[in-house]
Amino acid sequence: MDMAQYEVAPYFNLTNHITIPDHLVISPDTLAGMNAADQRALRTACQNAMKQYYEQSAANTAAALAEAKELGVTIVDPDIDAFRARCSDILTEAANRSTVTQNVYTLITARGVTAFVDDAVAPKDGGSKLTFTTGGEAGTYYGFGSVLAQKVSDVTSTNVTAITSGGSAANIDAIDIGDAQLGFSQSDVLAYAYAGERTFEELGEIQSFSIVAPLYMEQVQIVTLNPDIKTVADLAGKSVSIGAAGSGVYFNAIDVLGAYGLTEDDIKPTYQSFADSAEALQDGQIDA
Questions:
Q1: Which residue has the higher pLDDT, 70 or 3?
Q2: Sequence-distant (≥ 6) Cβ neighbours of residue 204 within 8 angstroms
Q3: Does this model's pTM top 0.70?
């Protein structure tokens, strides 16, 4: 509710139909240069941050839904079995796109949630400085990354500075060229980079990263002011913001459209950030 989405989106569908694991990735050279205690402290901070995120997210969601209903928002809790059935072919195709994606999918479905560790490590002298590339200033990545950076800086000898970025793909590229040592990324974008697919087709394979920890499941939401838009199929011919071209959000949007037999050519796409999309919705410049 703090983002005031209810002001531009009076209809919420609680489908929970797409969740994407987000990960914290690091340059292997940077990780190898950290002492054992700092490596453990970094992972501990990630695990504790993930635990706190899940607990706080559940509480925030319940409170936000109650407040949204009081403000007149229509909350729809649909049966999502049909949507899942439509998406099954996309999931199978994505999981079997390459050996890499098969391995990633197997790990995601088999691993579950990492056990939480509550022990702390006292600050030490002689640490290093790391740049942590996150996401847009109005998005979750930057806010969560800033808190995580502060926590790691507090409990280790390593000083971490969180900066804004263009998101998952930009973060992987920044780590690869040495502009950053830590970054957030969606798991599907990690797979694209490792295999040199989709947004990384021109750059080729990027494998210069390691996963520090799985963090949280990121939900994909479709927001509209138009009461006539009730399904993804209704987006045909409409003006829709689908994220920056080549970003993780962009490919999520393409996959969702594909589940309903639509392509980018079937809509009027715009490529905007979360904040710009909210403004455009409010001003009537886009439909969803």
A1: 70
A2: 196
A3: no
